[in-house]
Amino acid sequence: MDRPESVGALTEILRSGGYLADRGLSTALFVGLSLNRPVLLEGEVGVGKTEVAKVLAEVFGRKLIRLQCYEGIDTNQALYEWDYARQMLHLRALSDHQLDDDAAVEKVFGPRFLLERPLLEAVRAGDRAVLLIDEVDRADDEFEAFLLEVLSDYQISIPEIGTITAEKPPLVILTSNRTRELHDALKRRCLYHWVGFPSAERELEIVLVREPGVSQALATKVVAAVNRLRALDLAKPPGVAETIDWVRTLDVLGESELNARTVDDTMGAVVKERDDVELVREHLDHIATGA
Q1: Backbone angles phi, psi at 175, to 5 degrees
Q2: Is residue 1 part of a domain?
Q3: Three-class secondary structure of residue 251 per DSSP
Q4: HSE-up of 286 (CA within 13 Å, CB side)?
Q5: What are 68-109's pLDDT values in tens digits?
Q6: How far apart are CA 109 and CA 104, in angstroms?
C-alpha cells in the first residue's frame, strides 16, 4: 500500500489494524511517511508505542525489522557480523585442495558470509520495511550518535564490500521510555510525538476494538479501575496493554463483576511490582468500585 492521502485516511487505516491513534500521532506518522523522516515516540511503558510499528508494517504490507536496544549494545549487533565459523570452514576447504587463489580467499569476506543485523537489513529493504528501534533510551551515548549517522543518509559502509545505500528509506519508528534524556541532535533528526495515557473514553474504545468479545459493562469497570490505579503512587502505573490483559484475564475466568475479591485475585495482570501490590491491597474496595 502506498502512503495514505491524508491524516484522516491514515487514522482509519490504523484503526483497521486494531490501533486507535489520536490526531497528533496520526499527523506525525503521516508526515514521517510523506517526508521519509524517522518518528520518535516517547511515553510511559505500555501506552502502545511499539505496537504502532507493528500495525504500520501489517497494514502497509511491509516487513517489520526490530532493533531492540539495551545497555552495552554495539554497532556489530546492529549492523552486520561476519559468519566466522563458515569462513573458517571455507578457508580449510581451500587449504585441503591446496588452493591459494587470491580471489578465492577474498571471497571469504563476500556477501555469502555476511550476517545481516537489523540496520543493514532495513537499509537493503528500503521502503519495503518498517524499522522499529525500540527503547533507544537504553543504549549509551555512543550508540545513539552512531544511529544518528545512519539515519542521516541511510547508508552503511562495509570495507570489504563497499557502501550500501537505501534506494528509498524505510519508515523508521524509534521508541523511548525516558529512562534517560536523548540528545537534541537525534531529536532534531526525528519527528516527535509524546504518547500519553488515553482518556477513559478512548481507552474503553481501544479495549473494545482489541477485545470485541468482552462485555462493554465489564470493560467500562476495568478501565475505571485502571484509572484509579494510575491515581495511586505506584512505581509502575499500568499502561493500556495491562488494561487489555486485565480484561482478558477476567473474561477467561468468567468474571463479570469487579469487586475487592476479583481485584485481589487478578491484579497480577495489571500490577507488576511487589510494593505496588501491597499498596493496591490497601485500597481494594476503592479500586473496584471507587468508594
Answers
A1: -120, 150
A2: no
A3: helix
A4: 11
A5: 999 999 888 899 887 777 767 767 776 666 555 555 555 776
A6: 10
